[in-house]
Amino acid sequence: MDIANQRRMAAQLLGCGSNRVWMDTNRLEDISEAVTRGDIRRLIVSGAIRAKQKTGQSRNIALYRAAQKKKGRRRGAAHRQGGTESRFGRKERWMIRIRPIRQHLKELRDSGALERSVYRQLYLQAKGGMFHNRAHLDTQLRLRGIIKGELKPSKRAQERRKRRRDAARSIIQPSSLAKVEKKARKGKRSKAKRGVKGKEEASATKPESGGAGEDDAKKEV
Question: How many CB atoms lie within 10 A of CB 66?
């Protein structure tokens, strides 16, 4: 049975190659009788003809490895290729180091904790690489007596911490999340069962009002 013409029309309607066109072997007679594009469309709607799924490489393992690397794993000597600065450039490291320090200095200046002359002096010291990070900068400010007491994190810093926490939670594998949700559902079901049992026991312990009234009436007679 020659159905090459029907396969060609189905491939054009489905928008795929002729090799991806699947035809139901139990309905080959109906397919062979289809002559027009309208007939092929009706067969596609009925499910006799459809497009096969594309064959490709799964991204599941690659996504899992990327998540592991984001957590800091798989970065040992066996996984490294290239020199230190080729893997993580000197300029990128400097940008990651200096930007939070400058941002923190700007927040302190805008809040009034630093004068502009002191801010300019600290800015130039940060440019020279005197401060390693924000915590080191705060320690130096307290030792010099510029700021007293603990510094409260700004709203922007709190938002950054919240984003990091959410990102860390999103890395958790879906299987473990499904287990947690399953436990929560079991707990809700057990609570519901306990509530139903408690109501049944309470209704069983209540005395019947009608029976007590009949006994009192008999005693009076």
Answer: 12
